Amino acid sequence: MNRGIQARIAGRDRGSLSVFIALITPPALVLIGLVVDGGMAITARERAADIAEQAARRVADNVDTDALRAGRIVILPDCYAKAAEMTAAHGGGQVEACTISGPVATVTITYTYQPAILGMIGFDSFQARAVASAEAVVGVTAPGN
C-alpha cells in the first residue's frame, strides 16, 4: 500500500477511542456503583440486625432485682434509653420502637448508609431496618426445660 492510502485510512479512526470512552464510562460507573454500594447496603442490613440484637439483649438484661429475688422476671421500663445507649455504643442507628411484653424485649432500629459511588449521581442514602427480640431468663436453661 502506498503512504497516501494508509494516511487516509488512519485519519478515519482518529478520535474514535475518545467517543468509545465517552460512551462506556457512565454505564461502567453505574455498574461499579451498583456492585460496591449494593454490597455495602447488604452489609448495612447485617449491621442493623446486629445492632438490633445487641440492643434487645441490653434491654432484656435490665431486670428489676427485687422482683427477680422474688422469683419473677420484670424488665424495667426504660426501654428506649437502654436501646439508644447500645445503638450509640455499636456505631449508630436510630431506635424506631422498643416494646416489652413480659420477659421479652423487642427493638426496632433503622441504620442509614451513605453510598460512596452512587451518591455522586444523586442517590442520597439507603436505610436498613431490623427487628430483634431477646428474652430475659433466670439461671441456666436448656431447650425443653
Features:
single chain; 145 residues; alpha+beta; three-stranded antiparallel beta sheet; 4 helices; 50% helix; rod-shaped
Tell me the layout of helices and strands.
Layout: H1 3-12, H2 16-61, H3 65-69, H4 79-89, E1 94-101, E2 104-113, E3 126-135
Antiparallel strand pairs: 1-2, 2-3
Helix pairs in contact: 2-4
Summarize the structure.
This protein has 145 residues and is an alpha+beta fold. It contains four helices and three strands; from the N terminus they run ααααβββ. It starts with a helix and ends in a 10-residue tail after the last strand.
Can you describe what's shown?
- The chain has one domain.
- It is built from four helices and three strands.
- The protein has helices spanning 3-12, 16-61, 65-69, 79-89, and strands spanning 94-101, 104-113, 126-135.
- A hairpin with a 2-residue loop joins strand 1 and strand 2 (104-113).
- Helix 2 crosses helix 4.
- The model has no long low-confidence stretch (mean pLDDT 84).
What is the number of domains? 1
Question: Residue-averaged pLDDT, rounded?
Answer: 84
Would you report the number of β strands? 3
Biggest sheet architecture: 3 strands, antiparallel
Main structural class: alpha+beta
Strand order of the largest sheet: 1-2-3
SSE order in H/E notation? HHHHEEE
Parts with pLDDT < 50 across at least 5 consecutive residues: none
The DSSP helix count reads 4
Q: Between the first and last Cα atoms, what is the distance in angstroms?
A: 92 Å
Overall geometry: rod-shaped
Which percent bin holds the helix content?
A: 40-55%
Approximate strand percentage: 15-25%
Rg on CA atoms, Å: 28 Å
